[in-house]
Amino acid sequence: MRAIYILWLRQIKRYIRSRSRIVGAVGQPLLFLLALGYGLGSIYKAAGRGDYLQFLVPGIMAQTVLFSSMFYGAMIIFDKQFGFLKETLVVPVSRFKIMLGGALGGATTSVIQGSLVFFISLAIGFRPHNWLMAIVALAFMSVLALAITGFSSGIGSFVEDMQGFQAINQFLVFPLYFLSGALYPLNHVPTWLRIIAEINPISYTVDALRWSLLGTTKFGLGPDMLAMAITLVVMLSFGAIRFRYIEA
Amino acid sequence: MIEVKDLTKKFADFTAVDNISFSVKRGELFALLGPNGAGKSTTIKMLTTLLRPTSGKLKLNDIDVVKDPNGVRRSFGIVFQDPTLDNEMTAYENMELHGVMYGVPKAEMGTRIEQLLKLVELWERRSSLVKTYSGGMKRRLEIARGLLHHPKVLFLDEPTLGLDTQTRRLLWNYVDSLAKEKDMTVLFTTHYLEEAEDNANRIAIIDHGKLIAIGSVKELKQMTSTDSLEQAYLELTGSEIREEEVDPHEAWRAVRRARNMR
Lengths: 248, 262
Description:
The complex is a heterodimer of chains A (248) and B (262).
Chain A: H1 2-17, H2 19-39, H3 41-46, H4 52-82, H5 84-89, H6 95-123, H7 133-158, H8 162-178, H9 191-199, H10 201-214, H11 221-244
Helix pairs in contact in A: 1-6, 2-4, 2-6, 4-6, 4-7, 4-8, 4-10, 6-7, 6-11, 7-10, 7-11, 10-11
Chain B: E1 2-11, E2 14-24, E3 29-33, H1 40-47, E4 55-60, E5 63-64, H2 69-73, E6 76-79, H3 91-101, H4 106-119, H5 135-147, E7 153-157, H6 165-182, E8 185-189, H7 193-199, E9 202-207, E10 210-215, H8 217-224, H9 229-237, H10 248-261
Parallel strand pairs in B: 3-8, 3-9, 6-7, 7-8
Antiparallel strand pairs in B: 1-2, 1-4, 4-5, 9-10
Helix pairs in contact in B: 3-4, 3-5, 4-5, 8-9
């Protein structure tokens, strides 16, 4: 337990010491909120769908958690390049605990980022339908964060450099995000897009966040939670297995 | 304390370590010498559970390295050729993280860290981020960290590479006195032959993955009828310059990377 804790603490310390990372990771979602929220808001309203900003905020929170959790994989690649990873590979602690400690730390920092976006949204006019339910949103963000840090640990384990890592971000994570219903409702989209969204795990977290913050849901809370639980188990297992076979 | 028997490591069709056997006694300072690409680092990586041997037996502190990697990890400390510190944390935090990983009791942690950091003269700078350290300071910190969990065996892979004479001397003073004090076994590699001559009880010379000679400095000189370790070494390994070969493990990884891209 102490080993998991100290590796978690390492991520938190490094996060707090890196102001540029905090600002940078909040800057991009803010741009999305302002550009899309105000840019498309009037069309959305004209189409009779109500307030776009309200609809958009849970999607942007999921985006923030998704990409900052992916960034954790890049940290593993940095650890590889700066040599620190070697130190952790010869210690008498199981690889699973090492992977879990770091992933929990990475997940904590991305939930902090997601919460920062929530507070920024409040400042530009977002209102949750029920303040108590906003706490439930925190739980959903945590599940997504841990699933994605697990996934990115796995990716960071076998990708050797940042270019390779960026390629996975570009060709896998960006499409998953844009095809998830984070930015637009899935009600009237073409069938192929709907099918992709329905097998896309990100869609369910976005939907669960909308349930907690807006009180509306597309898939229903049950399917959302089931999909999130399955994603968490699969992603953490993937990370644990890949991490076991890391070679320094 | 260390037993190596018929150890072989192949990367694809390249044999990096070719049927090596030797043993190191408890409390001994043992040097592994050889030209670049001879297989020194690969041998150390296998002894420290970072690479699995293709064949052969490896025992450390009477524990089988391949069968019980976690058991064996408790018994040794290692200072790698390249830095393995977290630059974004302080010296103290690096030490503490290491101590926790090795299960150093909470009650002893503070005093052990203080003792070791004072020993390597970094106590005053314990709260500075490691990225502000010079190369020599980082090496000293790595050695202090490697000793924190009281290892029975200490591996030093070119510990003095790129350090000035003063720092090298200081480092060897620490290592020599600690080995005596704690009855610790030390296995090291170096390109500075005088370090081996001054500090090692016994020396093994490997070349092209094969063990070509083993013995004390005196025995190596007698074997080759020369009167310095450097002459003996050149006699055994030849005097032509080697290609700066990369670590065969790195080379193999590069091949694998290229394969993955296709």
